[in-house]
Amino acid sequence: MSSFATSLIVWQREHGRHDLPWQGGDAYRVWLSEIMLQQTQVATVIPYYRRFIAAFPSVAALADASEEQVLAHWSGLGYYARGRNLHRAARLIVTRHEGEFPQDYAQILDLPGIGRSTAAAICAQAYHQPHAILDGNVKRVLARYCGIEGWPGEKAVEARLWQQAEALLPERDVACYTQALMDMGATLCSRSKPNCAACPVQAGCVAFQARRVIEFPAQRPRKALPERRATLLLVMAEGRILLEKRGPAGIWGGLWCLPQREEGDEELAEYAACSGWKIAGQSALPGFTHTFTHFRLHISPLRFDLEQLPLQASLPGREWMAVSDALAAAIPTPVRRLLEPLVEV
Ligand code: SF4
Predict the structure, then answer these.
(1) Which atom of ligand 1 is nearest to the CA of 194?
(2) Of residues 187, 99, 171, 172, the one with CA closest to residue 137
(3) 141 C-alpha to center of ligand 1: Å?
(4) Confidence (pLDDT) at 79
(5) Distance in Å, CA 36 to ligand 1 centroid
(6) pLDDT score for 274
(7) Residue-averaged pLDDT of the chain
(8) Res 276 pLDDT > 80
(9) Whose CA is nearest to atom 2 of ligand 1?
(10) Average pLDDT over residues 170-185
């Protein structure tokens, strides 16, 4: 076993995290935690994880739920494709594997939303199989420890990191080693304030020995995010708000959203007239910006108060909901931000 793996395993037993709610759980729990932890911090994930497991305690329960129920439990966690893929994968596990989570790496990798590192983490932690992980935190640890230059988003750099991840992987104690790598990345070897003084592999760390820790891993080459604009309509009538369900594709696919318009005032007036709205009052609310991975969305909220609920209230994909019901539905974070102040205290 490499001295890197031995030192990490010893360190994990004494100093690593042992009380995360998914630790020691079955493959379903490890899988759920791995998907929730993508792009999201542990502290944010824990309450979502607990609520999700309480609502869907098994693969079968998740497969039985509707997509709407699953997304309602994902609401606020962002990156909703993760929730949709989780649901699709649960249904495939029922049809392909009779509801038993597969133990074979290739079969796990074949499920939607599961990449190489996630499949490896499930195999290592749930089944003690030696497979190397390489999530964002582990890339940072290995880039520093092995002194790998370049941005890990580049294919060649990522390939070098995978090589090292496999070379350092021990054959036994693999669950403990995998947890140690995750814990190291999340605690000691953090992005901006690494605690090298307490690190068990400091003596062999290339970046530390060269006093270049903060230079690794190299940053993504800067590129300005595209800017987009949208007007979100808060249409209120008799204490209810109008929500529209998005189609399955796109960043908010399958979620309940406020009607969104990209056009100017004239088209907006036409839209209101076509919808049969009798407008009693109209006001612009303070705008804000929501940043996605690939673009920045500048949101201008516009509130309309109608005299009464329009007659053709329920069109397919459109619903007038009590604000409290809307907040319990599958809605994206910017919509939640606009609805929360509307709850009557
Ligand atoms: S010595 Fe510092 S930079 Fe190197 S692996 Fe340890 S914490 Fe990370």
Answers:
(1) 7
(2) 187
(3) 7
(4) 85
(5) 26
(6) 73
(7) 92
(8) no
(9) 196
(10) 94
Q: How far apart are CA 135 and CA 259, in angstroms?
A: 37
Please work out whether the CB of residue 256 comes within 6 Å of at least one atom of ligand 1: no
pLDDT tens digits, residue range 208-252? 999 999 999 999 888 888 999 999 999 999 989 999 999 888 889
CA pseudo-torsion sign 30, 32, 33, 37: positive
Of the candidate CATH numbers 3.30.365.10, 1.20.120.530, 1.10.340.30, 2.40.30.10, the domain formed by 3-215 belongs to 1.10.340.30
Q: Which amino acid, residue 222?
A: R
Q: Which segments of 38-154 does DSSP mark as H helices, in order? A: 42-55, 59-64, 67-74, 81-97, 105-109, 116-127, 136-146
Q: Average pLDDT for residues 35-39, to the nearest whole number?
A: 92
Tokens encoding 79: 């990156």
pLDDT at 149: 96
Distance 29 CA to ligand 1 centre (A): 30
Find out whether 151 and 220 touch, Cβ atoms under 8 Å.
yes
CATH fold of 227-342, please? Nucleoside Triphosphate Pyrophosphohydrolase (3.90.79)
- Token pair 């209810």 is at which residue? 240
